[in-house]
Amino acid sequence: MKEEKPDPRLAAIGEKIKRLRVTKGYSSYESFAFDHGLPRVGYGRHEKGANLTMSSLLRILDIHGVGLAEFFSDLEG
């Protein structure tokens, strides 16, 4: 069975999500997820570059008050 390599664009999205969390003053993704009613395990995977649904991304961006255009403006891929 061939193992697929992770998509580097997903990793970049995960890093951006993590930066937004840290900017809000949260050192722990678990605390952030708990405080905002997000599933902790799923949120942690998103920060590590796991595939996420558009609705999950939109929910995270709404929490941060960031629009799609702003979020993707400095991502390369």
Describe, in plain words, how this protein is organized in 3D.
By secondary structure, the chain is mainly α. The chain has helices at 8-23, 29-35, 40-47, 54-64, 68-72. The relative contact order is 0.18.
Q: What is the mean pLDDT?
A: 92
Number of helices: 5
Which stretches are poorly predicted, pLDDT < 50 over at least 5 residues?
none
The portion of residues forming beta strands comes to under 5%
CATH class: Mainly Alpha
Described by strand count, sense and barrel closure, the largest sheet is: none
Query: In one word, what is the shape?
Result: globular
Examine the coordinates and then state which fold CATH places here, giving the name of the CATH topology.
Answer: 434 Repressor (Amino-terminal Domain)
Considering DSSP H and I runs of 4 or more, what fraction of the residues is helical?
55-70%
